[in-house]
Amino acid sequence: MNNQPEQILHNIFLIGFMGSGKTTVCGCLHKMYGMEVVEMDSMISKQEGMSISDIFTEHGEEYFRALETELLAGLRDQNNIVVSCGGGTPMRENNVALMKKSGRIVLLTARPETIYERVRHSHDRPLLENNMNVPYIAELMEKRREKYEAAADLIVETDGKKAAAICGEIMQKITSQM
Ligand code: S3P
Question: What is the pTM of this model?
C-alpha cells in the first residue's frame, strides 16, 4: 500500500558513511511510502558495465566522482524518489547543491564499530578494501563529518534501530519541518 503523505512531493537523498544503512532504508521507504528508489552505486555500475571496485581500479576515483555528479544532475526533474547516495557523494559541494535543489538531504549515522560489523564481509568498497578495521573507519568518518553535517537537512542515528523505525523517524522529521 502507498502510505505516502500527500504533502511529501519532493525527493529524499540519503547520505552517510559506507554501511550507514542507506540502501536498506531506501528499500524500506519504497515499501512503506511507495517512493521510487534510485541506488547511485548500482546505477553507475550498470551504466559502466563493471563493479564499483573495477571502476576505481580501471579509471580512478575522480572518474567515478564525475559519474556521481552526472547522475545527480540527471535526477533534477524527478519527483517522489529516494536516492541512496554513495558515501562520498556529499564531499563535493556541487553535488550537495544539486541535491538541495530537488529534495531533502537526510544524514544517516552509525558508530564506527557498527559500520565495521555491517561492512566487514563486503568486497565492493574500494576505499575500505585494504583498510577494513575500526580505527580506519573512525578516522575517515571524522574527516568527512563536517561536510556530512553541513549538507544534512536532518540527521538520524541508526545504531540499534530497525529499518522501519528509521523510516518512520525520517518521515516524522520531514513532515514536522514543513
Ligand atoms: C564510497 C562509498 C561507496 C561507493 C564507493 C565510494 C565512499 O558507496 O560509492 O565505494 O567514498 O564513501 P556506499 O556508501 O553505498 O558503500
Answer: 0.94
